[in-house]
Design brief:
Number of domains: 1
Number of strands: 6
Helix content: 55-70%
Structural class: mainly alpha
Pathway: Carotenoid biosynthesis
Largest sheet: 2 strands, antiparallel
Number of helices: 8
Keywords: Carotenoid biosynthesis, Isomerase, Membrane, Transmembrane, Transmembrane helix
GO molecular function, one term: intramolecular lyase activity
Transmembrane segments: 6-25, 32-52, 85-102, 114-135, 141-160, 172-196, 216-236
Main location: membrane
């Protein structure tokens, strides 16, 4: 059965319009983030999203975790439709532009305790371990791969800035939750239209109003990646002067040598 709307049609109808609206609003608001710092962070996150997500989709699609309706996609590169690669770019942009509307306003030093950094890294790696244990089961295959895939990124992000993310949690939570809820609705509509089909065999069977929990988790963790990544990138650039320079390090070493 041919689908009533294509994957590309979903992008045009549901993803591109809010991006254009958020772009226009951000350019008009004094408080909104715009300019080299946030946009360069967005560019980096787009590249990372495509690079890091491509191996995941190209493993899960041929494994039968999900597939696409007849006539839903134009063509595929590897096992993934070109619309899916475009979606990596558009989702990252959509979430970033929403973040730009009301960015964190808390100023904090880059200094974070070692205990906090270790706790952040451990939390991310714990997700990796949980994911690898779940991959072996048929019904937990999709969930396992999501956790194993998400854990390394979260370990890096939390290890670098978990304290700052906690300090800015209100802004970060809003920046994550709104686009995530919106994308859940879009995903549910696309599934109902048969644009893509999620395997019953490779999912645990729990849904949120018809949306498999694995799909909900995917959009949640990817938006967490985007928001945390850009927030910490801008935070780093604003406080980069706090980092010791090579010249400064050499000067201190020379001074210590002279003292001896």
């Amino acid at each position: 059965m041919t689908v009533p709307i294509t994957y590309f049609g979903v992008l045009l109808a549901f993803i591109v319009p809010p991006i254009l609206i958020l772009y226009r609003v951000a350019r008009r608001r004094d408080r909104a983030w715009w300019g080299v710092r946030p946009l360069s962070g967005l560019s980096i996150l787009i590249a990372l999203a495509v690079i890091y997500t491509t191996p995941l989709t190209n493993r899960l699609i041929p494994a039968g975790v999900w597939w696409y309706g007849e006539g839903a996609v134009v063509a595929t590169v590897w096992h993934t439709p070109i619309e899916e690669y475009l979606f990596f770019v558009l989702q990252t942009t959509l979430t970033a532009f929403w973040l730009f509307q009301d960015p964190p306003a808390i100023d904090r030093s880059l200094g974070i305790s070692l205990a906090h950094r270790l706790w952040g890294v451990f939390s991310g790696l714990a997700l990796v371990a949980a994911g690898w244990m779940l991959i072996g089961g048929t019904s937990t295959y999709y969930l396992g791969w999501l956790l194993a895939w998400a854990g390394p990124v979260l370990a890096i992000q939390w290890g670098f800035g978990i304290t700052y993310l906690w300090d800015t949690r209100q802004s970060v939570l809003v920046a994550i939750s709104v686009p995530t809820l919106y994308l859940w609705v879009v995903d549910r509509i696309a599934i109902a239209l048969g644009i893509w089909v999620i395997s019953d065999a490779h999912t645990v069977g729990y849904t949120l109003l018809g949306l498999p929990v694995e799909e909900a988790l995917f959009f949640l963790v990817t938006n967490v990646f985007v928001v945390q990544g850009i927030v910490m990138y801008v935070w780093l650039l604003e406080h980069v002067h706090e980092l010791p320079s090579p010249a400064g390090t050499l000067s201190r070493l020379d001074a210590r040598s002279d003292d001896r």
